[in-house]
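Comment thread on ticket #2218

A.B. wrote:
> Attaching the input chain for the structure job we discussed in standup.
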Amino acid sequence: MTGFGAASCVTEVAGQPMRLGVELRSVNQRFLEVKIRQPFGGAAEQALRRRIEARLKRGRVDVLVHLQAAGGGAAGLGPADLERIGEVLAQAQQVEAQARRLGLPAPAAFTAIDVLRLVAARAGGSEAPIAAPPELDALVDEALDALCAMREQEGAALAAAIAELAAGLQDQVAGLDAARAGEAERLVTKLRDRIAALCEKAGVSPPPPERIAQEVAALVQRGDIEEELARIDSHLGQLRAVLDAPAQTGQGKTLDFLAQELFRELTTIGSKITSHTGSAVVIAAKGSVERIREQVQNVE
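C.D. wrote:
> Ran it. Output below, let me know if you need it in another format.
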């Protein structure tokens, strides 16, 4: 399910006031996928992942942890950065002096941006990652609370939509039950006409009525959909029970399974029923189940 949560606070990093922020975004996905961007190294990322996976079971979740100067701008230059700038400028002077000794044109002067880029390149990978501030866990929990609250609101709307689709499906199944009226008589008439036509074409006498009655009984039995209708009614009852139950992890997978079973029963009915009206109802009912399955993919 979709959702968003954010939290921030001011903390101290390396003696400087910094604003630490956490943003969580989730979108619909059948399984859980967590993408994390944070500045505190691998150990902090694993801790963040475990904390999120303990609360969420479905969806793609993007996690952004950012750290910036408390005033809102970029962090200022520390003593180590100033020392590196001095080293870069001193080496630039050595390059110019060497060029003059060799009679070569002096290289173009550095801009401040060039110097900062070189300093950043030297700093990259040369120092251990910043340790995660102790406030990080509380901020992650606060952002998770906001995200889960938004997902719960969406879940309530999804439950109402699925319940409405299930009610429509129940009406379609009732129509299917009514459409099978006269199914046995149609099968009997169809079989007798076919046998009579085959016997006439072959020039033989038709079989005795007892034999025809046996075949008709077997055909009617194979075309009976009573069991499938009973299972559909049971599945719809279980689906409504899940929707009415308190929210808990795993309900999405249960609803997904029930939707698959509903579709399977309708497919079996479609292979048995012979009336055009019944076939049209089966197609419409399958469409309702597909819409239920689409909504269920968003339920955790």
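A.B. wrote:
> Thanks. Noting for the ticket: The chain has a mean pLDDT of 82.
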